[in-house]
Amino acid sequence: MAAMWQCQGVSRTVAPAGAVRQGSLRELNLALVLDRIAAAARPPSRADLAARTGLTRATVSAVVEDLIAGRLVSEADPTPRNGAGRPARGLVLAGDGPAGLGLEANVDYLAACVVDLAGRVRHHTVLRADLRPLAPADALARLVGLAAAARADAADQGLTLAGAALAVPGLVDDAGLVRLAPNLGWRDVDVPALLAGHPPLTERVDGVPALVVDNEANLAALGELHAGVAGPASFLHISGEVGIGAGIMLDGTLFRGARGWSGEIGHIPVQPDGRPCRCGGRGCLEQYAGQEAVLLAAGLAGADLPADTAAARLTELAEAGDRATLDALAEAGTALGVTVAGVVNLLDLDTVVLGGGYAPLAPWLRPPVLAEVSRRVLTAAWSPVTVRPAVLGSEAAVVGAAGSVVRRILARPAGWLAHRR
Amino acid sequence: MAAMWQCQGVSRTVAPAGAVRQGSLRELNLALVLDRIAAAARPPSRADLAARTGLTRATVSAVVEDLIAGRLVSEADPTPRNGAGRPARGLVLAGDGPAGLGLEANVDYLAACVVDLAGRVRHHTVLRADLRPLAPADALARLVGLAAAARADAADQGLTLAGAALAVPGLVDDAGLVRLAPNLGWRDVDVPALLAGHPPLTERVDGVPALVVDNEANLAALGELHAGVAGPASFLHISGEVGIGAGIMLDGTLFRGARGWSGEIGHIPVQPDGRPCRCGGRGCLEQYAGQEAVLLAAGLAGADLPADTAAARLTELAEAGDRATLDALAEAGTALGVTVAGVVNLLDLDTVVLGGGYAPLAPWLRPPVLAEVSRRVLTAAWSPVTVRPAVLGSEAAVVGAAGSVVRRILARPAGWLAHRR
């Protein structure tokens, strides 16, 4: 890659090309330098960047000036050096430039979150609210309030929101239409149309709608991917909430399926003639390992706890050795393990991440999941499967949503620079 | 692509580079011209190829001479043209050049097949044999006999075998070690070591072992991909035999999983506490929709029929309206449908191909599969799933195996040309 950019950088100097070519060269160089700054273990100098990109030092300096002017990059305090010479100033991703707004409308809460270019969470609010009795327009109106508060807080911190992504526990098409979210009771909800009166969420930024709507489990898997855990970039991330969704990560890329509807692990049958499910089917995993099923089995039915409160309550009871809770978690873990074993037999993934409400419950869910995997996966004897809790729990989707906006800027900084002119 | 090759072709003429560069240019041009000949709807002339590749006519002529000399391409009879001028001679893939040998060791049969460059099956033999009582070495010895007969027949037809691929209903590692084939009773069977006394199957050709061992369901899915059906290149291909395997085709590429063990759909649990399975698990799909389960339910247990005979017998009985057979197929189709619904919920594939012994039984299996899909797949109402019989049935794996050798030659013709010197 570097060699190619270098070649193009040289031709730019020697033989200036037309406007289009200039523009695209500039875009490539901006993205390349920004990528090297983002990837560096410690703040690189301009000279380091020249060496790492293959661009000339003059080109690097010009590109860095553009990135600094656009508030994408800032200069770190110089670190003292041993040896002769003035210490070089290192470059870091700006902590006061563009940021991403993440939003989530889930069954029993709304959330908003702001993530800066460096991936730091700068704002995070969760509003408990059972959305099921609400009309979608009313639920979204409350979300707009949360978004406005996040925007104001971001501004106070010197950040500019460059776009937003909304996580919904359902099937979303490319235009932001929620085709079906069984646990919310939403069907064909046109989110962009319902948000039309809120320009910060509906205008287009750099050719992309200011708000992208996506599946909650997909965004949670992306959040986990970028949460900084060393390890394989291929994994199954399971978000255990009222509904159960999965994100299938293959070599760092989310597998979305033929039409974008992949990951509905909660509706894999575990008992074909079993309990009826809201989806119209029977015996779906959700009916055995979803939050409501676990609460019911633990004797907490009707408590109507939000996902992380439910997980915290179950954790508390399990830690206290409450028999009903331990049995409920064992039963849920077994159902989850049966399904995970089937998925591993089919896809041969070597890492399963227990996310969402499952993350804090992993000490109790992991053993039965591993037992089913070892009993049912053909290759388990010589190809072990790692089952681990997610680094992010219930906040993975909203953090992943905000992070997806940030990564779009990092991948195409020229768009951001053009937009803010 | 074409522009890049053209650019390289020009630089070759203008400024001859070193030996390595020459070699790789020649390889690229050989592969490019051969690809265009293979893809053409009707035999292209040298002038057509120059237009389609962007190479000069002189380069095309030189490349075509190499391909003809290497028996990869031959000249078709000239087709009469309307209008002035001598009819141009079209070029076709040679029918008397290198060919691929496909082999299969399945539970109750051995098979061998030869496929020429154009994808035509030139030899196909199936030997009924229950391999379960045999030691792996004895089973492979019989396969060597089949391979020798295929080789002799190919030679009689002017073909040269350029390599072989062996399909096994089990988990195979990169070195050809069969880690586990539950229905054969094989565990850690080192196929290349057992074939060491048979040089045509063990020497290396062009850096690749003369014999590649692969999973039967994977090769069957590849066979189906290249069987010439128009349609999406993303599908789930299910091979229904004694065991049930799947090949997951995503955009024309086989999805092999993290370590190459994907596709074990037969061991997805359909009744977690159900019938014990040879794999050590319980309630695996194989125990409800595998050949033995269907025969047992249809009252044909102990008949011990090979896969295609079993399918033919079941077809005959179903067509005659035999109640037990119809019930057995409905039950198998339902179990298959429950599993397929789970897979579609997880992966959002829009096409499911019923292959192997399922192909002729599709008229009876398809309705219950579709019923379960429509009942259980969240997106079924607006994103229909196509369920169709495979074009190739039980022969898909052995044909796909032979075809995989042919496609290796087409992708890298220089290797073949170097080898035959």
UniProtKB/TrEMBL annotation, chains A, B:
Source species, domain of life: Bacteria
Gene3D superfamilies according to UniProt: 3.30.420.40, Winged helix-like DNA-binding domain superfamily/Winged helix DNA-binding domain (1.10.10.10)
Q: Where is the HTH iclR-type domain?
A: 33-74
Q: Which family does it belong to?
A: Belongs to the ROK (NagC/XylR) family.
Q: What is this protein's name?
A: ROK family protein
> Which lineage is the organism of this entry classified under, starting from the top rank?
Bacteria, Bacillati, Actinomycetota, Actinomycetes, Micromonosporales
